[in-house]
Design goal:
This protein is α/β, with parallel strands linked by helices. The protein folds into 3 domains: 69-161 and 297-360, D-Maltodextrin-Binding Protein, domain 2 (3-Layer(aba) Sandwich); 164-295, Periplasmic binding protein-like II (D-Maltodextrin-Binding Protein, domain 2, 3-Layer(aba) Sandwich); 368-395, no CATH class. It is built from 13 helices and 10 strands. The protein has helices at 11-43, 67-75, 88-100, 116-125, 136-145, 195-206, 218-227, 242-245, 307-319, 323-326, 351-360, 369-383, 391-410; strands spanning 77-81, 107-111, 131-135, 155-171, 186-188, 212-214, 232-237, 253-255, 269-274, 287-300. Strands 1, 2, 3, 4, 5, 6, 7, 8, 9 and 10 form a 10-stranded mixed β-sheet that branches. Strand 5 (186-188), helix 6 and strand 6 form a beta-alpha-beta unit. Helix 9 (307-319) packs parallel to helix 11. The longest helix has 33 residues, at 11-43. The radius of gyration is 32 Å and the shape is globular. It starts with 10 loop residues before the first helix and ends with a helix.
Length: 411
């Protein structure tokens, strides 16, 4: 109708154009302001330092208006990094929570972790994580390699928990009958950073077995074992481990024995996988030789008197007196191996734990009259019938005699 002529613009169209222009200007202003904020964030780091400020370095905002309940919950909660669903660590951490939790007054927060190696990193660096479980040998490995810096003054030992056994699973029809035959074959060392990965590397190196390392979870490893993509999968965990307990010899799986070779005897222990541990994998009354390594509870070394030190001390005061409750059903059977007083050579025990042990160390029973008479006879033969020079000297000799006598009885 209008041919080549332009259609007249009505009032409604004018209003729409003006509104669009205003909206565009507003969005432009917001974009500029946002860009300026981003520029400021990229050029000013923490504490006013210059440089890019990545997402991981921006402080997390606190939840506002927590109130007295929130403050109490935060003050009385302590997190422990454990392991994945295949490991015993998570069961142990859950048991700690199940037994020790006391509403808002005290709470254990189990954290799913990747295992021993990563747990050391997490306790050393991760905010909010004060406790962890790892293998004792890995603490020495991290100290020796210095890969996360000096940790002697950053990590403290709390207690020995249990032993972790090495499980090597192969196909029953694979023809692999010894660990040495895994050289040159693909073997799953479990997840990267796990205790299984790092300790398996150590064991294979000591035994001079050059396997091709694969790093996948146990569920995927079992599938690849079935298909023949890998020759074996390894899991180092406290028996019975859930991931292994599901396997059956009737489905074509078999344990590979691990000899307690001389190269392993300084840092590992002999162990056995029995039919009681894995009835579906081991025949009744039979056993498969393997090796084990100790699992320990450790903490970050907070300065004494700080809030975080108080939390760890509070944990010790709740946990240590109630160990016997963990050693009964339905708790994990590995609790029966816990030894609170065991020392970890080369590592300092958390001061609050050391003080608790000192206060609660069982007192020696008073020596019997028979022991005293035996000592007097012993002393008479040593001194030709004369008495000791003084009561103090006599008591010192008596204590030495008791120690000697105890050592003789143990032999």
């Amino acid at each position: 109708m209008w041919g080549g002529l332009r259609r007249p613009i009505g009032p409604f169209q004018v209003i729409c154009v003006l509104a669009a222009a205003v909206l565009a200007a507003a969005l432009s202003s917001l974009s500029i302001a946002h860009a300026q904020r981003n520029t400021a964030a990229t050029t000013t780091g923490t504490a006013g330092t210059s440089g890019p400020l990545g997402p991981g370095t921006r402080p997390l905002p606190d939840k506002p208006n927590l109130g007295s309940i929130g403050e109490r919950i935060n003050a009385n909660t302590i997190a422990i990094v454990s392991g994945n669903l295949n490991a015993t660590y998570l069961s142990i951490a859950y048991d700690l929570s199940a037994v020790l939790d006391d509403g808002d007054n005290f709470r254990i927060l189990p954290v799913v972790g990747k295992g021993g190696g990563q747990n050391i990193r997490d306790v050393r660096f991760l905010k909010g994580v004060d406790l962890g479980i790892t293998q004792s040998i890995l603490l020495n490995t991290f100290r020796r390699t210095n890969e996360i810096g000096t940790i002697d003054d950053k990590i403290v030992y709390i207690a020995k928990l249990f032993n972790e056994e090495m499980h090597i699973v192969v196909r029953a029809n694979s023809g692999v009958t010894s660990i040495e035959q895994l050289g040159g074959r693909k073997v799953n060392f479990s997840d990267i950073g796990s205790g299984t990965q790092l300790s398996t590397r150590d064991i294979f190196t000591r035994l001079d077995i050059k396997a091709i390392e694969v790093n996948i979870g146990q569920a995927d490893a079992i599938e690849q074992l079935k298909s023949g993509e890998i020759a074996a999968t390894v899991l180092i965990a406290g028996k019975p481990a859930a991931a292994i307990g599901r396997l059956k010899a009737d489905d074509g799986f078999r344990f590979l024995p691990v000899p307690f070779a001389k190269q392993l005897q300084t840092d590992y222990l002999p162990a056995t996988l029995s039919s009681e541990d894995y009835p579906g994998m081991v025949g009744s009354g039979a056993g498969v030789d393997t090796v084990a390594v100790g699992a320990v509870l450790f903490a970050y070394n907070w300065p004494k008197g700080t809030d975080r030190y108080r939390r760890i001390e509070n944990f010790v005061e709740h946990f240590f007196p109630r160990l016997a409750e963990f050693q009964k059903p339905p708790r994990h059977p590995k609790w029966r191996e816990a030894n609170l007083a065991a020392v970890l050579p080369g590592w300092t025990r958390f001061e609050g734990a050391e003080q608790w042990l000192a206060r609660n160390r069982p007192s020696q029973p008073a020596p019997s009259a028979a022991v005293r008479d035996e000592f007097n006879q012993f002393l008479a033969t040593r001194t030709g019938g004369t008495t000791a020079a003084s009561p103090t000297e006599r008591e010192r000799l008596f204590q030495d005699f008791l120690k000697w006598n105890q050592g003789r009885e143990r032999r």
